[in-house]
Specification:
Layout: H1 2-23, E1 37-48, H2 50-55, E2 61-74, E3 77-87, E4 95-98, E5 101-104, E6 106-122, E7 128-145, E8 155-156, E9 163-173, E10 177-186, E11 191-202
Antiparallel strand pairs: 1-2, 1-11, 2-3, 3-6, 4-5, 6-7, 7-8, 7-9, 9-10, 10-11
Amino acid sequence: MRSVSSLVLTSLVSGLILATNVHAQESNGSFDPSGTWAFNFGVEQVSFDKEQAYQEFIDDSATALNIEGEYFFRSHYSVTLGIQFLPYDDEGTFSQDTTGGYKSSDASGMPIYGELGYKRFFGPSEKTYVTARAGMSVMVASDRSISNCSNCYEEDIDIDGGFYGLLGAGVRLGQAWTLGVHYKSYFSGDIDNAVGIAVSYGYR
């Protein structure tokens, strides 16, 4: 699975480089995000390693919410820091009698991540962008537990983040907003890949 994802990522990188070279000459140089922040809100469909997911009694995919900040330290280069809220589709739910009644468990993870990469705006009025990034994700919480119950039973869910590559593209909507899609391929850890969509505000 990882070799297929790596092949897909390599092909997309090649296409991204070609598209950038072809369209860079169309840029009029009027939009320069250097020294600005963008705040991104997105949704991802995350796919886990099937064997690891089976061992941890969760489904091998999940829908996650991402919140991140992106800083452009140069015109086409930025660093991103983010946090992800990752509710698992749990197949190992347990129940327990609590002071608030009989309640069932929930399962979720919370990765934090950082990325460094290239983002190029091009085309008429520089309304379109492509991006290629390298990132690392670290799972700071991953468990099966009953919410708001301090003495209840809980279980760790062993799903690790890892290193990944990201490719994306999108459009700028006015001066401050962008809408984009992206694909992540993981090279380590228990996540295989992720596909997402995000809206961004900033560049000021």
